[in-house]
Amino acid sequence: MDTKLLTSHNAEKVYSKEIMAIKNYPSYNLSMNITEIHWQNWQQYRQFHPDNQRKVLHDIAREIKHTRLPSELIYYLGDARFLIISYRVDENTQKTINDTTQKSLQQAFKTPAIQFKWAAQQINNDNYDQFIYFADICKHLDRVMETDIITEYLGEGN
After folding, report:
1. pTM over the 0.85 mark
2. Per-residue pLDDT averaged across 141-152, rounded?
């Protein structure tokens, strides 16, 4: 994949090291924010535009990079999923950065064929034990995105 981003293998290694730091140094009050962005209808897009999908993924990656802090780590997990690890950024700042990225992606990709799902989780001393393994946070973020879609769907019915 030509996103020029690190892969899930790299993300898992960094994540595991940071979880161990949070666990081993409680007095440091460490935290990390994990954000996942998923291009939700990429498979349908690939079906109709197989030659253009790589370019769109590359463009999404570039747009994400432009809106993030230099200290944030951005990964491509495959299946049109991007993961961002942010360190020592308070939740309000994190929300502002995520909002900026979201608006930027909406501006850059106005076609209905390119819609994004989002999920974010702060991990710190209080909750790291719920997310010991990289698979745990990935599952959690996927559940949040599924719940958002169901909530959105139910909200439209009212």
Report:
1. yes
2. 78
